[in-house]
Design goal:
The chain has about 300 residues and is mainly alpha-helical. The chain has a domain of about 200 residues: MFS general substrate transporter like domains (Growth Hormone, Chain: A, Up-down Bundle). It is about 80% helix and about 0% strand. The chain is globular. It is a multi-pass membrane protein. One of its GO terms (cellular component) is plasma membrane. GO terms for molecular function: symporter activity. It is found in: Cell membrane.
Length: about 300
C-alpha cells in the first residue's frame, strides 16, 4: 500500500474516539462506588466483589474481543463498525447503570450486577476495536505516531471533561435529588460520548488490509498465553488498573467523609488532572533519556 499523509481532520476524527472511553471509565472509577453505596444504598462489600468479578471478566473478554474484531468483515472495515454500532448501547447502558429503580435490596444488587457487567462488556466492545483502528488507518510509522499523539491529547481532555463536569451537572440537574442528578449528569456525558464516537467513525478510513486469519480463536488464545512477555505486561496492567481504581474510588469518600467538604471535590480533581497532564508531558523526554522499561 502506498503511504499517504493523513489530513488533520482524520487525525482529529481518530482522536475523538478516545475521549468517550475516558469519559465513561474515569466516571466509573471516580463516582460509581460512591453512587452505589451512598446513593443507591448497596452494601460496600457486595460492590467491591462485583467490581473484582468484572475485572476478572475483562481479562477474558478483552482478548476475545480483539480476536472477534480481527475476524470481522464488512464494507466499513474490521474495526470501525464496532466503534459506531457499539456506541449507542454503550451510552444507554451507562445511563441505566446510574439509575436507581425502586427495588428490594436483593433486587438492587441484581440490577447493579447486570447493568455494571453489561457496561464493562460494552466498554470492551467499543474500546478494543478503537485501539486497533489506528494500525489500519495508515502503514506509515510517522503518521501512526501522529495519530496516537492526537489520541492521547484528546483522551486526557476527555478524562478532565468527565471529572470536572460531572458533579456540577449532578447539582445543576438534580439539586438535592442526587439520584436524578447522577442519572442526568451521566446522560449528558453519554450523549457527548456517542457524538464523538460517531464523528470518529465518519471521519476515518481503514486503508491497511491485513491478510485473512487462518488460525482458530482457540489457537490464537493459546499463542497469547504462551507469550511470557504478554503475561508480564498483562499482570502489570492488572495491578496498575487496580491501583488507579482504588485511588480514584476513594477520592469521593475522602472528600465527603474525611475532609467533610464535598463541594471542593472538583478543585481536588482538577489538581489530580493537572498532575496527569504534567506526567504525560514528561513521559516522552524521560523515555528519550532512559529506556521505557527502566522508567
Amino acid at each position: 500500500m502506498k503511504s499517504e499523509v493523513l489530513s488533520v481532520k482524520e487525525k482529529i476524527g481518530y482522536g475523538m474516539g478516545a475521549p468517550p472511553s475516558h469519559i465513561i471509565f474515569d466516571n466509573v472509577m471516580l463516582y460509581m462506588m460512591f453512587f452505589y453505596t451512598d446513593i443507591f444504598g448497596i452494601p460496600a462489600g457486595f460492590v467491591g466483589t462485583m467490581f473484582l468479578v468484572a475485572r476478572a471478566l475483562d481479562a477474558i473478554s478483552d482478548p476475545c474481543m480483539g480476536l472477534l474484531a480481527d475476524r470481522t468483515r464488512s464494507r466499513w472495515g474490521k474495526f470501525r463498525p464496532w466503534v459506531l454500532f457499539g456506541a449507542l448501547p454503550f451510552g444507554i447502558v451507562c445511563v441505566l447503570a446510574y439509575s436507581t429503580p425502586d427495588l428490594s435490596m436483593n433486587g438492587k444488587m441484581i440490577y447493579a450486577a447486570i447493568t455494571y457487567t453489561l457496561l464493562t462488556l460494552l466498554y470492551t466492545i467499543v474500546n478494543i476495536p478503537y485501539c486497533a483502528l489506528g494500525g489500519v488507518i495508515t502503514n506509515d510509522p510517522t503518521q501512526r505516531i501522529s495519530l496516537q499523539s492526537w489520541r492521547f491529547v484528546l483522551a486526557t481532555a476527555g478524562g478532565m471533561l468527565s471529572t470536572v463536569l460531572m458533579m456540577p451537572l449532578v447539582n445543576l440537574i438534580g439539586g438535592d435529588n442526587k439520584p436524578l442528578g447522577f442519572q442526568g449528569g451521566i446522560a449528558v456525558l453519554s450523549v457527548v460520548a456517542f457524538m464523538m464516537l460517531a464523528f470518529c467513525f465518519f471521519t476515518t478510513k481503514e486503508r491497511v488490509e491485513a491478510p485473512p486469519t487462518t488460525t482458530s480463536m482457540r489457537e490464537d488464545l493459546r499463542d497469547i498465553w504462551q507469550n511470557d512477555q504478554w503475561r508480564i505486561v498483562g499482570l502489570l496492567t492488572i495491578f496498575n488498573i487496580l491501583a488507579v481504581c482504588v485511588r480514584g474510588g476513594a477520592m469521593m469518600y475522602y472528600v465527603t467523609w474525611i475532609l467533610g467538604t464535598p463541594e471542593v471535590f472538583v478543585a481536588f480533581l482538577t489538581t489530580y488532572c493537572v498532575g496527569n497532564l504534567i506526567g504525560s508531558a514528561l513521559a516522552k523526554p524521560l523515555t528519550d533519556w532512559k529506556c521505557k522499561v527502566t522508567i
